[in-house]
Amino acid sequence: MSPTLPRAFLPLVKSPRFWSDYLFLTDTEDHSLHKVAFAKVEDESDDEDSDTDYNKSDDQDSNEDDGDEFDDELSGDGDENGGEEKDGNKDDDSDVDSPNEKASNEPSSQPADGNPTEEPSENNPTVNEPASPSSSSSSSSSASDSPRPRSRSPCYSHDLTFPFARSLQPWDDTYNLSFSISPELSYFELTFCAPNLYNVSIAHDDQAHWHPWVLRWEELELVCRAVSATFAKRREKAKEAGEDEDEANLRRWEHPGLPLLFLYRFAPICVGDDVDRIVSMLVKAWKKVLGDGGTERDIRRFVERMDFRRRNFRWFKEGENWWIGVGDDAETAGAVYTYRDRDSVKSGKWRNEDWNKLVEEARAVVEDEGGLGELSEEDRELAARFAPRTKHGLSLWLQLREKDRPLHQRAGRYFSLTLDAVLRILDLGRLSSSGASSRTINGESVWTSDHMSISIHGGLERGRAIIKQMLWWIRAPLSSTLMDSSYKDLPFNIADGAEDTIPETYLGIIVPDILPTCSWLVGHTLPDSLCTALQSKEVLQDTANVSGPTSEGWLTVTTTDGGELGFNLSRFDDEELEGTGAVLLRKLTPQASAVLHALMNASGAVLTPVALAAKPLNSDVADMHWPPHRIVDAGTLHEILSGGPYQLWVKAERKEDDMEDSDEEYWEERW
Q1: Are 309 and 272 contacting, i.e. CB atoms less than 8 angstroms apart?
Q2: Residue 587 phi, psi dihedral angles, 5° rounding
Q3: Are residues 280 and 424 in the same domain?
Q4: pLDDT digits over 320-360, tens only?
Q5: What is the pTM of this model?
């Protein structure tokens, strides 16, 4: 029998949520979606042909229907556009700089001390992993460890094997890449085999001492095409011989498809790569696997995830062997986290001969099928449409205790949650809080500033304008500073109302609540009742109508006096209540403001970061240490919003210069 896709993966591979967590390593301590799917499969450990070892407890039920519909869809026998409905991605924008992913996720250029500067995820690994060398101790540490015999995680895992060969010998005699994954998505390992060589580990990611970068894109394409060709031959042979081969299983390995999507997390897009070819392959694979379950935003985000050209990742060739580093020149290139670095390749610790034989075997299989071929016009159109955007790293310092516009102690978190949500909703970037400073006043430690790391994807001018809008809404002090990724001050004058502007105006919207998982902070939530209230007669009255949502989650409210508002109330994680929505003031009229006020009154929602409410906050929220909110009627709300964020900022300047740090009434006063 042929190698099969473990049943645990069948309900997952059509879910953007699974792939988002797989590629971005988000929230690994609670992968309930994945752990349930992994657990509720039949115990295949007794199947001699199974490649998967399930460690299932007695109280876990088998799911006889698990994945049947996915068999048909992935094999092309069912509705190719069917599948799991898209649930909100945690990182809808998300890029490499998001708060719940690796703090950097991309190694930076080589620092002065020669050490790579990748940083681990903020999430701790959830299982005890086998010992693996750390690259952080010295610049040569990644070079000192060669590919090693496979070391399995003590936690049970699932394997996917991608075999190929020119002749139709037994599967055990083929070349292959084999991939191991833990149910918590906390450990990944890549190995390779040759006819006379058992699994040799060549890459892994355990969120602690990872060494993932190992595959060149030409090699990856050759392997994936060779796997596809090998399974196609098996399929034809099975038909001719009347053998009982699983047709659906054989078709799952077609290129571009699942092998490419599982393996490309080990293949960074580097300077010098054929990006058009790479992007077109990935887009086709994602469209095939996700069907209607994935949006263009999902696909773009997944493609951009492995673009490391900004970090100057590059492959270098010495003789017949390739190695990866950071830099323009082989002699001065810095280290990245890999077992395929220059020293390992030159010394032979990397299995050059064995690996080259594997690649050449794949090349021979592909050439027998006509070679790699040229890009079609469709490929070029896809490549242009989904071309990875330039990512701009910014740093924002928000001062809290300036006398012109003092802010509440929790203003940094309040502001950052709103800005991050708006950037993500607009598919424009991400924000992560990366630090704060404090000083002692009257014997107590008081926060004085918050530091935020922001990644803008593509539209830098628009991103800067959104940042400035949010600073105006919160009435940030004039000293607020924007820097580039090297912490050099950028021209950014918050007092200039003419630069860094866009026609549209955005706000955040939340329902404040105390969540049991974080009872010491006010939670920013988006309950389903908020969307229900927006579409209710109580809110719309006889003057407004609502339409949508669009594929990106936008609802549109129009009023009889020509007003128009946009609402995006989508949560990035449908399993959680936490989230911040966005309000777009497309055309503000008295009736539009009245609808917004009615929604706030009916649901208890507040507007952020402007801190406006339609009624008093619940007592449990009001008693928390949280920015005070101004209670306004519909007329006042219209007056504030129609004036715009810049006018609100100008009017908020404090004129008193004789206040002291110890004047608590002054510092606590918000309005």
Answers
A1: no
A2: -145, 105
A3: no
A4: 999 999 999 999 999 999 999 999 998 889 999 999 999 99
A5: 0.74
Q: What are phi and psi of 496, to 5 degrees?
A: -90, 110
Q: Is 125 exposed, middle or buried (0-12, 13-18, 19+ CB in 10 A)?
A: buried
Domain with 570 in it: 391-651
Q: What is the rounded CA–CA span in Å between residue 153 and residue 131?
A: 10
Q: Are residues 130 and 190 in the same domain?
A: yes
Q: Are 459 and 476 in contact (CB under 8 A)?
A: no
pLDDT averaged over every residue in the chain: 78
Residues 182 and 275 in one domain: yes
Q: Does residue 503 sit in the same domain as residue 564?
A: yes
Neighbours of 196 (CB within 10 A): 7
Average pLDDT on 612-624 reads: 88
Structure tokens at 638: 């219209």
Residue 50 one-letter amino acid: S
Which parts of 27-154 are beta strand (E)? Answer: 148-149
- Shared domain for 303 and 423, answered yes or no, is no
User: What's the whole-number mean pLDDT along residues 582-600?
Assistant: 97
The first and second tokens of residue 40, run together, are 């509720």
Query: Residue 664 falls within a domain, yes or no?
Result: no
> Which residues are CB-contacts of 498 (< 8 A; sequence separation ≥ 6)?
none
Task: Determine the pLDDT at residue 254.
Answer: 86
266-303: string of b/e by CB count within 10 Å (b at 16+)?
Answer: bbbbbbebebebbbbbbbbbbbbbbbebbbebbbbbbb
pLDDT in tens, 103-122: 333 333 333 333 333 333 33
One domain, residues 512 and 406: yes
In a domain, 155, yes or no: yes
Per-residue CA distances from 490 to 98, 393, 480, 483 (Å) = 22, 12, 11, 5
Chain-centroid distance of CA 206 in Å reads 17
**251-255, 358-362, 621-625: which has the highest mean pLDDT?**
358-362
Residue 192 within any structural domain of the chain: yes
